[in-house]
């Protein structure tokens, strides 16, 4: 099985966010579904660069992490990528900022940044 296919299989098999850490970058996969993010909690370490791979199987979504000043649109059928390096420890809220239907206001998750 090609490495890319294996990686994609693991993306959907793992309930937790962590996929891989290569070249010092932590890669996490997040699926935006009506009306939740999977996983709802992302755990990272301060100072470690993060690459989020974001997909939506349903409708256009947004991913906004205001405490770190990053956001992107998520278009169904395409992978969006978002890179940032958490510089502070604590718990921070990320949310969908593109109206995706009734229940949109409850679509959020938590980024846990540890030292």
TrEMBL record:
<keyword id="KW-0479">Metal-binding</keyword>
<dbReference type="GO" id="GO:0004129">
    <property type="term" value="F:cytochrome-c oxidase activity"/>
</dbReference>
<dbReference type="InterPro" id="IPR051403">
    <property type="entry name" value="NosZ/Cyto_c_oxidase_sub2"/>
</dbReference>
<dbReference type="GO" id="GO:0042597">
    <property type="term" value="C:periplasmic space"/>
</dbReference>
<dbReference type="InterPro" id="IPR002429">
    <property type="entry name" value="CcO_II-like_C"/>
</dbReference>
<dbReference type="Pfam" id="PF13473">
    <property type="entry name" value="Cupredoxin_1"/>
</dbReference>
<dbReference type="InterPro" id="IPR008972">
    <property type="entry name" value="Cupredoxin"/>
</dbReference>
<dbReference type="GO" id="GO:0016020">
    <property type="term" value="C:membrane"/>
</dbReference>
<keyword id="KW-0186">Copper</keyword>
<feature type="domain" description="Cytochrome oxidase subunit II copper A binding">
    <location>
        <begin position="23"/>
        <end position="115"/>
    </location>
</feature>
<dbReference type="InterPro" id="IPR028096">
    <property type="entry name" value="EfeO_Cupredoxin"/>
</dbReference>
<protein>
    <submittedName>
        <fullName>Cytochrome c oxidase subunit II</fullName>
    </submittedName>
</protein>
<dbReference type="GO" id="GO:0005507">
    <property type="term" value="F:copper ion binding"/>
</dbReference>
């Amino acid at each position: 099985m090609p490495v890319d296919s294996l990686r994609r299989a693991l993306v959907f098999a793992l309930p937790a966010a962590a996929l891989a850490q290569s070249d010092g970058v932590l890669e996490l996969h997040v699926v935006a579904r009506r009306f939740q993010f999977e996983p709802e909690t992302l755990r990272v370490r301060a100072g470690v660069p993060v690459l989020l791979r974001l997909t939506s199987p349903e409708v256009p979504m947004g991913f906004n992490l205001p405490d770190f000043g990053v956001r992107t649109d998520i278009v169904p059928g395409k992978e969006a990528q978002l890179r940032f390096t958490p510089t502070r420890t604590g718990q921070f809220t990320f949310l969908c900022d593109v109206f995706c239907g009734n229940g949109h206001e409850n679509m959020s998750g938590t980024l846990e940044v540890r030292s």
